[in-house]
Design goal:
The protein is α/β, with parallel strands linked by helices. It is built from 7 helices and 10 strands. It has 2 domains: about 90 residues, Nucleotidyltransferase, domain 5, CATH 3.30.420.40; about 140 residues, Nucleotidyltransferase, domain 5, CATH 3.30.420.40. Helix 2 links the parallel strand 4 and strand 5. Helix 1 packs across helix 2 and helix 3 crosses helix 7. The radius of gyration is 20 Å and the shape is globular.
């Protein structure tokens, strides 16, 4: 069994895959920067126990992390409770996709893993959107290379900033209100944020397609992806666990290369 872990700025996602590639368990937890190795281990073990997934079946762990401070305790927790030393996936050590940016090794591991997943699901050229702490629009060329990304403020971050800097505006549920013209405070905020995100998505997709080609496919992930996708035809597919799948695809390729190298020795 393979355990893939995606450590984001707001949340950490876990996905367990069996030998056939089926996801047998998926979990989501708040990213806590001061969590200890034991806290990571006990928490993850509890997830496996509650889902009746045997922890002893985990043979490999792959981690994508954009929060370096948690890497050491996370690694120690995996080693102590799973008996497995995790592999940390980065833009520099992966070999599944060519990163054709000015500083390839500096591209976020989540962006690269998501791009690998996007190519596997919809092919190339393609645009991979992630609605997370930031909203990112990754561009994948016709040859399958990762060309770059546009980064915008995430919807929840935008809402938090709006509420935090105004005296009377409340926190609201980020759902489409049904009309772009709000008739009260809550629907007004929802209209501005959700339909604003829809307009942003459609315009960036349009502009990227002028470079990538009109046939560029669009796949989206992240917590707000279903909300935005329901309001626009620009998004063709929503895959909630895209980064986790990308980590699995890269692990399979890396394992195949290792096996081939061993046979040649």
């Amino acid at each position: 069994m393979l355990l893939c872990i995606d450590v984001g700025n707001t949340e950490t996602k876990l996905g367990a895959f069996d030998a056939s590639g089926a996801m047998v368990g998926t979990w989501r937890v708040t990213t806590a920067r001061r969590r200890t190795a034991d806290e990571f281990g006990v928490l993850f073990a509890a997830f496996f126990s509650a889902a009746s997934v045997p922890i002893r079946d985990v043979e490999a762990i792959v981690v994508s992390s954009v929060v370096p401070v948690v890497d050491r305790p996370l690694g120690e927790g995996c080693q102590k409770y799973f008996g497995v030393q995790p592999t940390f996936f980065t833009a520099a050590n992966q070999r599944s996709i060519v990163v054709r940016t000015d500083r390839p090794t500096e591209v976020g591991s989540d962006l690269v893993a998501g791009a690998i997943g996007a190519v596997a699901f919809v092919g190339a050229p393609s645009i991979v959107i992630n609605y997370g702490t930031a909203t990112t629009f990754g561009a994948i060329g016709a040859d399958g290379a990762y060309l770059g990304v546009a980064i915008a403020t995430g919807l929840q971050v935008s809402l938090d900033a709006l509420v935090g800097r105004t005296a009377k505006l409340p926190q609201v549920a980020l759902v489409a209100p049904g009309s772009p013209i709000g008739r009260d405070t809550v629907s007004a905020i929802q209209a501005g944020l959700v339909y604003g995100a829809v307009g942003q998505t459609e315009e960036l997709v349009r502009r990227m397609r002028t470079i990538l080609g009109d046939g560029a496919r669009v796949i989206a992930s992240g917590g707000m992806a279903p909300v935005v996708a329901a309001e626009t035809s620009a998004i063709e597919l929503v895959e909630p666990h895209l980064v986790l799948h990308g980590l699995r695809f890269d692990h399979l390729r890396a394992s195949s290369r290792h096996d081939m190298h061993e046979r040649r020795r």
